[in-house]
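Subject: Sanity check before I submit

Could someone independently write out the structure tokens for this chain? I want to compare against mine line by line before I put it in a report. The sequence has 658 residues.
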Amino acid sequence: MKNFSANCNDPSDNSLVVQSEDAWGTEKVHILLVDDRKENLLSLEAVLDSPEYHLVSVQSGEEALRCMLHQDFACVLLDVQMPGMNGFETAKLIKQREKSRHIPILFITAISKATEHVVEGYEAGAIDYIFKPFHPETLRLKVEGFIQLYRKQKQIEYQREMLRWRTLELMEAQKKHNDTLLELQKSEALSRTIVETSADTILTLDEERLILSANPVAETMFGYRPSEVVGKSIDVLLSMLCSDELLAADGIVETVAMRKDGSLFPVDVQIRRTMIHQKPVYVCSIRDITERKQLEIERKHHYQQLEKLVNERTQELMLSQELFQKIFHSSPCLIAIRSCEDHRYIDANKSWLAYTGYAYEEVKNLSEDRLLLARDPFQQERAIDLEDTIRNEKITYITKSGEVREGLLSTEKINIRGERCILSVVTDITERVYLEKEMARLDRLHLIGEMAAGIAHEIRNPMTTVRGFLQLEKNNEDSRHFQFVDIMIKELDRANTIITEFLTLAKNKTSDLKKQHLSQIIEQLLPLVQAEASLGGKNLLTKLNECPEVYLDAKEIRQLFLNLTLNGLEAMDSGGTLTVKTRMAGKEVVLEIADQGPGIEEELLDKIWTPFFTTKEEGTGLGLAVCYSIANRHHARIEVETSEKGTTFSVYFPIEIK
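---
Independent answer below. Compare away.
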């Protein structure tokens, strides 16, 4: 028996592709046979064996559905009782698919003969319901009928598709025709509009140079109405242009035209030859260039004036250059000119050479940096005198002998003979900076002297008290002398506190800065501050956010934190809240300590950092001065915000120390 089984999973099977209408009579059609028993499939293949059929046999509903995805079938012979997905379920899924819903399905069964099964089969989409054993000839005829219907349907679809394509072709041809007609109409209207609205006179001529048509501009330009020049020779308008020169001209020809009143005026004439109805026609465009000629005369006069002005400016530039050279070489500032392209020194004045110690030959045309300029003497940078637009920036520079000097740098971009250059001017301020430092040092010595006098006064009083009580103790034999012990201890502690704070403020102390978290140091001191707040009936609120590590001296930060928090607690009444917060602000870590006290008077803000200035009865006036000194050693800054609702001290610590 011949096997008609096919691979349903092969998407490249093109056996159903129809090339022409006649092919539907000879093309093999696909028939899908579905039965879980192989002997039943062989029986169906034997009955339906035909050279016109391509039989595809599968043994489950799942395989049948996969075949439906890749092939088009004329009909499906489907067994009802199958393991897994039965015939009714398979039929319903086939009918749900748009592409396969019109394929006729024949149920073939030997078991499900009950009426309800037959009804269910028809409801599932079956065309017929056949019981086994079936009559082979009857089955063959039924299938042949479905095949004939399938071929007729395909033929109708083919004819419908061909009709659709023919309709589209006709519509496309009609559209192209309409578009071409529209373009022609547009071109005609555009040409007519150009001719009528053109500022030039446009004429058409025949081979005899007779005017065939003229646009309305001819009346404005020549004084003739178009009807007056039609049929006349072009010589009426262009009498100075011979016929051969006119017709053979290639491009624009400048000549002279004549108006109706006999006046002459300059024009540009352009001739182009074309063919209309196989006859040569010449299109002549005439443009009045009277204004252009007048502009050329004015431009020539203007050019002469500009040439005179250039000569005058050249003399001024020569004088300016001479003045620049005198200023350049006689200026007390260090002035140099360098190329932006290769960084070579083009020139340097006498002051530059005198301050740096270089000879002119050592600098001229040299591309290496002879003057090492830097914004920070401890930081290596490229020569900043090659940067443009710098104004009085404080810098340091190193001379040939290695001496480090200070100055104010200004630069300007200039152009010398087409080459971009930088003019750098350095005002040496080494002596001035030295004098400023000396004055600052004298001020600090004066301040320390005042501090020493105050501390000596503060120390003298407790020492005198201690000495007096010790003298009494020495002369008094009564055992009640122990009542003075507390007074002596208090005064000695006071003297010790003053001396310690003074030493912290006055001596040139070097901080041991290490990278660490500010919040960790503060957390260690919070129990102490909380206890102090609780004793006074006050509250402590902390908001310690996660911040990066900064360079800190833990011992000094503890002193700064305690000074600020204790000051805040002392400034508040019972029930007040002291807030301690850490946060990020750009590239800085901020410690904020805010109290709810009465605030600081505005006239006292400038004095709170002064040593020994205090508004407390028992204060030493050194707490905030010590905080300021600690912040300075940490390259930090302290900002104060105060009002009637309280005061906030904010300490800004840089994340990186330059």
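---
OP: Matches mine. For the report I'm noting this point. The chain has 16 helices and 23 strands.
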